[in-house]
Each structure stands twice: as C-alpha cells, then as structure tokens.
C-alpha cells in the first residue's frame, strides 16, 4: 500500500496513468500495444487529472513488478519506467469522504459534496474503467449529452470540456484506490471513455453515461 504524489509544475492539467508490464516483456514492447490488450499488460491506477501548480495524491496497492507511467496517452518521450520490489503485503486504504463505483456499464455514486475530498474509486466489474466528470451546462439534460456523444462530439457541447473537468485514472476490474478530487457544486455528466480489453467501442457507446449532482 503506497501513497503516490504528482506535482504539476506545468501550465496545463496533467495526470499520471500507471501500467504494469508482465515478466518477460519490456516497456518499449508495451508502448507498441494496441487493443486487444495482452494479459501481460494491465492498467494500474495512478494520479487523477491535476491542475497546474497543484499536487495530486492517490493511495493504492502496487504489486511487485515493472511499471511505466504515462500522461494523456503514451506519447513518445512522455513516459517513465520504474520497478516495484519487495513482497506484497496486506494493508488498508485510508478513510474516504465519498465513494464511487464502476462496473459494466454503469456508475454508482450515493453522494458527492463540493470541495476537495478523498474518494474511494472501486472497479466492481471485469473490464478497465475510469470516471470522467464533465460539468453540464445550465439547462442541458443527460439526453443532450448522449446525443452529442453519439454524433462524435460534433456541434455545440452540452458540457464544459475546457474547464471544470475532473478525471480519475483507469483501474482494472477488482482494483480500488483512494484518490483526491476537487469538485465544484453543480451537475456533471459522468463518462467512461475506456474500451474493453478486447477492443471495440468505448464504454460511453455501451451506455456508460450518467448524471451526478455535487452539492
């Protein structure tokens, strides 16, 4: 059980997505992989989208092995590798103020409050998932969001993609982490842009679109 920190010294929001590379394979090999994902390459959590000049914090369990960390995609020159050593030991995640769960293909969130908070994000399914919070415009409905996404994000968006976006890292089925998120009060479209490990359409195309109200 480890605490991971991402200090964003840049001028744009950044995240740190972790990937675990199985024995006998290299990071160079992993960066060439496209879906379907092989069993030796697994998403492994990381740090949520972090605003400029801020520090993001996540607590999660890391199994021993080789990893690499990437930003928004696996752009060349934007990854770094590291190794986790030692024996895997039991440990409890810290207490969180709220919880958010994902599975195939839906979200569950009993209550979210405005402000900075620690959120327990759980993947109760078998496919990888993340949670992407897009602030909905005044008067927009969830059907408006679905239609906009179905058009391939063409036209005037019913959500704000340029500001107020909060995003968790991607975690595999059965994994969980406590991550720090800051949410302003309002209505959000909760989306999962990830595809199944075998490929195919993104999870939003499979109906993984819901609304959450932050008070």
Can you characterise this structure?
- It contains two helices and 17 strands.
- With 215 residues, it is mainly beta.
- It has one domain (2-214).
- The longest helix is centred in the last third of the chain and has 9 residues, at 142-150.
Largest sheet: 6 strands, mixed
Q: Pick out the low-confidence regions.
A: none
Number of strands: 17
Instruction: Give me the secondary-structure category.
Output: mainly beta
- What is the strand content? 35-45%
- Taken together, the total number of domains comes to 1
Head-to-tail CA distance between termini: 31 Å
N-to-C series of helices and strands: EEHEEEEEEEEHEEEEEEE
Going across the major beta sheet, what is the strand order? 1-4-13-9-7-8
Shape descriptor: globular
Radius of gyration (Å): 17 Å
The portion of residues assigned to helices is under 10%
Topology:
Layout: E1 2-7, E2 14-21, H1 27-30, E3 41-50, E4 55-60, E5 65-70, E6 79-84, E7 98-103, E8 106-108, E9 115-123, E10 132-136, H2 142-150, E11 159-160, E12 166-167, E13 176-183, E14 186-191, E15 195-196, E16 199-202, E17 209-214
Parallel strand pairs: 7-9
Antiparallel strand pairs: 1-4, 2-3, 2-5, 4-13, 5-6, 7-8, 9-13, 10-11, 10-12, 10-14, 14-17, 15-16
Q: Keywords, please?
A:
215 residues, mainly beta, 6-stranded mixed β-sheet, 5-stranded antiparallel β-sheet, 2 helices, 17 strands, 44% strand, globular
